[in-house]
Amino acid sequence: MSSNGEAIERSHQSEPINSYKITSKEATEDSADASEDSTGRRRSNYSVKKKRELIALAQVAGIREVCQLEGVPRRTMRHWLRDAEKINNFEGPDTRKSIGRLGRRELLPFGQKLSKFLEKGRSEGRDITSSHMIEYIRQEHAEWLECYMADKSSTESGHAALARLCQRFVERHGITQPESDSILTRHSTLMPDMTATACKKQSTKVTLSSNDMQTSTQLNMLECERGDNTPLLFGLDIGTSAIKCVVVKAKGRETVATTNVSLKEVTVSARSNDKIAKYKEGVQNVDQILLAVQRAIEMLPESVRRRVSSIGICGQMHGIVWWCSHAVHESADLLLKARGSCIYKSEDTLDPAWSELITWQDQRCTASFIKKCREKVSSFHTAETSAICSPIAAGYGLASYSHILEHSSHTLVGMDACGTIQDFVAFVLCGHTLSSETAMDTTNAHSWGGFNMNTLAWDSHVLRALRIPFSMLPTVKKPGSCIGHTCTGYTAFGLPFQKPVYVPMGDHPCSVLAAILKSQSALGKDLKLTLVNIGTSAQLAMVLTDADVVKLPFGPKSDSLTRKQGNLSFEQWQNWTKEMGLASADNGDEESATQRDAEVYARLIQLGMQHQNTQLTFVPTLNGERADPDATGSILNLRMNNWSMGDITAALSRGLVDNLFAMIPTEVQALISTQPIIGTGNALVRNELIQRFLRCRLANPQNLHLQTTADAAVGASLAPLLVDYAV
Q1: What is the sign of the dihedral through the CA atoms of 479, 483, 487 and 490?
Q2: 677-680 and 704-706 beta bridge pairing
Q3: Cα–Cα distance between 259 and 246 in angstroms, integer?
Q4: 87-113 pLDDT tens trace
Q5: How far apart are the two ends of the chain, measured CA to CA in Å?
Q6: Are residues 456 and 561 in the same domain?
Q7: Distance (Å, rounded) from C-alpha 505 to C-alpha 717?
Q8: In this predicted structure, what is the pLDDT of residue 624?
Q9: 465, 487, 503: which is the final residue of a domain?
Q10: What domain of life (predicted)?
Q11: What is the mean pLDDT of residues 155-166?
């Protein structure tokens, strides 16, 4: 929940199933305050009318008597008496549970006019979105908008702040979307960045935090002028923890709008026999991902979406999901139409259209199982053919497939296709119904293992060794290949009809592509550079010139290396502060929790900066490694004077960098230290300690260039430019 306590509450008893009610924090707090007293007894909510009656009674009979008679907490009664004048003078409906925020200044100087604009649109039954509000402000209050944007540190932060301000205004004034007995259409939510999906007796909270926006929209208003019909490129990044959309101009590659939705903010109903994915490490709920994609796309202004001319998709690599091709379209359409709200009947649970997603973090493939798989493969391979085949490891698609076949093959009954989660979303988006229409690009195929880099096809020896049917695997295509066009209905996710959809790529290659294109102007056309990304996991990619490649014992012009360790270790510090009672309770206030975590994070880095020369050694392989899933982390050289928080923080940051560089082949280590490095990822951008230890690895510390905008979604949007690309 953000600072103004924004919440989206959905009623399930007396209101239609798709009736959304937007409430302010005070309404939420009053409801919580009135729902249960100190003894756990249930109480009713209080309308403005009831509050007025109790205030009048308390002024005559006294607080104690009224509280005993009505069961109202004394603290609540005192609050009402303190604000009696404002409650009695409230001009809204008597049935309201809240009169809005008391004693606070209006968010906007023209708030009354904006409120009338929204109410007029509501009464006329028109779809009112955040883009409409921003357009109204731009046309009617341009001078205020100019002053407002001038105070912001950047155009991007100004757009994000304005979007949050619009959301706060709507919720503070209690403006609601007209209720309907029908399913809300894709464009009918009052605020597209506030779409909620919830099952009965559940509510979904959408937060906007200035530090870490879990659900957010950024709009470049200068690029969204009315009547502008220039084509735009759409990019979608299906990450492990969030969905991100970006729209860029076809010419100039300037970003027009971005949206971001955290997966944990999307609630879905479960099938009766479904093992909830969120309780299993390394497994995700595909329904949740589809709904998050729907929400992220709908958050984009309609004026921007209708100008989209192509769709590029990327996502988390290595993972695998299976599906029944002929049933996918109907099931996905039903899910998206109902927005995840209790769509499953008992008979539906017997024949699911898709499986759960086994992600790159999955550890069901133990070291012994992987060893057995590799032995099977080696029995079919010569040393020469083995060298050109991508390896098998825990969390990789073919390894997970082999494990399912060996231990739970019954879960694949009825399935006739498989792919990464981004391949599945593309399949849904195109409205495909045949398994032969499933496609995967070379970057994702390589990440699954068992991919022949010479023939750019699945290695038949590996498939025979692991007993994986070739007919189930997707057709491999080069990046930039068109695999279909957007369909109609809900499975189009709100994107325009008949637009080309390009074969999805891996998120890391797309991040590299975005960084390269952004760096070309500064570093030259024939550039060579290294991209280091440290976030949930860590990756390192090198782009080399032809001259450098000739000197190496391997052939590709680029190579990518991955470590499973990222910024997760720092979260343990924050968990410890909660366990020790050093952190105050969240009380549902997500922004306060985010702010507190940011303060803890900053303090740890500050302490670590004072111990950069610590003798402590931290081996951060806490989640194992690809080659050794059973690997564990360790702390070495402990002494009484070197195990402070600062020592451990510094040792951990240095260990992350050391661990990343340890996987670099000796043939290219000299190049790493001399060529420019582009640094991305929240852990690297936010952690000065990691930056310092990374610079220590370079011959020239100035070679490290941090980028916060070179993300995978931008790279995915540029898929049409990759027609002639070859891996």
Answers
A1: negative
A2: parallel
A3: 7
A4: 887 766 677 777 764 445 566 888 888
A5: 44
A6: no
A7: 11
A8: 66
A9: 503
A10: Eukaryota
A11: 72
Angle at 200 between CA 197 and CA 206, to 5 degrees: 30
pLDDT tens digits along 561-586 = 455 455 555 666 666 666 655 555 55
Rounding to the nearest 10 degrees, give the CA dihedral for residues 640, 646, 652, 656: -140
Q: What is the mean pLDDT of the chain?
A: 75
Query: Tokens representing 44?
Result: 């009713």
The DSSP output letter for 354 is B
Place of tokens 């407002």: 148
Whether residues 554 and 666 fall in one domain = yes
pLDDT band at 401 (very low <50, low <70, confident <90, very high): very high
b/e code 26-56 from CB counts within 10 Å (16+ = b)? bbbbbbebbeeeeeeeeeeebebebbbebbe
Tell me the CATH number at 633.
Answer: 3.30.420.40
Domain final residue, candidates 471, 503, 535: 503
Distance CA 155, CA 22 (A): 29
DSSP string, 222-250: GG--TT----EEEEEEE-SSEEEEEEEET
Q: Clarify whether residues 638 and 703 are in a common domain.
A: yes
- CB distance 532 to 593 below 8 Å: no
Token pair for 430: 């195109």
CB 427 within 8 A of CB 437: yes
- DSSP 3-state of 314: strand
| Residue 717, H or E segment | helix 712-717
Confidence at residue 551, expressed as pLDDT on a 0 to 100 scale: 57
pTM > 0.70: yes or no: no
- More confident position, 563 or 643: 643
Sign of the four-CA dihedral 299, 301, 306, 309: negative
Q: Are residues 442 and 515 in the same domain?
A: no
H or E element that contains 50: helix 48-61
Q: Is residue 273 part of a domain?
A: no
Answer yes or no: is pLDDT of 350 > 60: no
- Residue 687 makes CB contacts below 8 A (sequence gap 6+) with 534, 567, 570, 605, 653
Residues 425 and 529 in one domain: no
Instruction: For residue 169, give both structure tokens.
Output: 């205004």
Please give the Cα distance from 21 to 167 (Å, whole number).
Answer: 13
The one-letter amino acid at 12: H
* Weakest-pLDDT range from 64-73, 300-309, 487-496: 64-73
Q: How confident is the model at residue 35 (pLDDT cuts 50, 70, 90)?
A: very low
Residues 630 and 516 in one domain: yes
- Predicted local confidence at residue 349, as pLDDT: 46
**How many domains are there within the chain?**
2
Q: For residues 694-698, give the mean pLDDT.
A: 89
- Other CB atoms within 10 A of residue 474 CB: 25
660, containing H or E segment: helix 645-661
Structural domain boundaries, residue 428: 307-503
590 found inside a domain: yes
Regarding whether 657 and 521 lie in a shared domain, the answer is: yes
Q: 473 with 514, same domain?
A: no
The answer as to whether 470 is a domain residue is: yes
Residue type, 467: R
Examine residue 156 and state whether it is found in any structural domain, yes or no. no
